[in-house]
Amino acid sequence: MGAAGRSQTDVNRTAILAHLGAHGPASRAELARALDVSAALITQLTRDLLADGLLEELDEARSGGRPARMLGLVSHDITALGVKVAPDHLAFVEVGIDGVVRRSETRPFDAVSPLAVPHLTDLVAEFIAAGESDRLIGVGVGLPGTVAEQGIGVVDSTQLRWNQVPLGEQMRRALGLPVVVENNVNALTVAEQLYGQGRDFRNVLVVTVGNGVGAGLVADGVIVRGRAGGAGDLGHVPVREDGPLCQCGNRGCLEAIIGQAALVNDARSIRLLGEAEGIDELHGLADAGNDEACEIFAHAGQQLGRSLAGAVNLFAPDIVVLSGEGVEAWNHWSGPFERALRSALVPGKRGTTVAVERWQDDRWAQGAAALVLATPFDSQGVAGEQGRLVRERLVASIEARP
């Protein structure tokens, strides 16, 4: 089976655990309907999960026909840690194997500090120590940048100003735990696919707007990573040939026009904001009806709509999910965005659903934790050796269960 097929199977297995954790015991037929997969695949996957000791067969249930054997989780106390890394803060969550967030925390962080990685590791260790779970099977990290292989975790990030940082290796050595590292939008896309508005669809485009602009694509149930994990750089689609300089070194990228720093710079250039003011103040001015502030957001919405139309025409998703810090001001983006998007879509795609999910740090971190929860089912996939190590910890936790 190819890597894409394995990734799809991994997410399906994780989705089974999440569904049973959220809704309680279910029959195989109920799981097949809820997850929109074939009965044959559910039979195969649940057989594997039963063999792994993660599921158990319970009493039979009857619903008008022949009795159906119910399946339930063996244990709810196995957990994974998820970390979202942003330039100025970290978000932590501890997530049960059922996908439920047990606890969360946000801490300030300076990504450009020479001691950024040791500081990150220390804060992760502190969060782990503050918890009560003794069945932590691994740590997932989501960050803005390119990660060629989750299980190795070497990071290139213009937002964090990191170049070939061996984050995975350094964290594994310091924590003594398996660590998988992934682009933060891909991690968020996993969370959307398992727990969010994308869970009922096979083809999902997740777009985030904030400091940067990113995209995660699920095609036929599989997250597309591209060469060296570099897929999804929607923010670096060229929009204007003579446009502003982007942090990537090119000119006229979408991110350099509609990212939060770009909007603030536009407001400062017309003296709408002072040097000490930022995106929150710009949002406040728009809420108060300031025409110039509203126009800045409207222009951003129009630019995003046209650029996103190109992605929708290319990939034909069932649904587009918009998220990120930028959607906090979505009422000022939405009108021009909708007009630009729909007018630039080809006729057969003009009805594509666009859902806005209010930005929450813990959803991003939850996606990073979900990466860990998926790795035990594929020790030779994108998580590589880390998948095997996570699986060993998972099996040991099950065997140690009272």
TrEMBL record:
Q: Which family does it belong to?
A: Belongs to the ROK (NagC/XylR) family.
InterPro entries referenced in this protein's UniProt entry, alphabetically: ATPase_NBD, HTH_MarR-typ, ROK, ROK_cs, WH-like_DNA-bd_sf, WH_DNA-bd_sf
Q: What protein am I looking at?
A: ROK family protein
Q: What is the lineage of its organism?
A: Bacteria, Bacillati, Actinomycetota, Actinomycetes, Micrococcales
Annotated HTH marR-type domain residues: 14-59
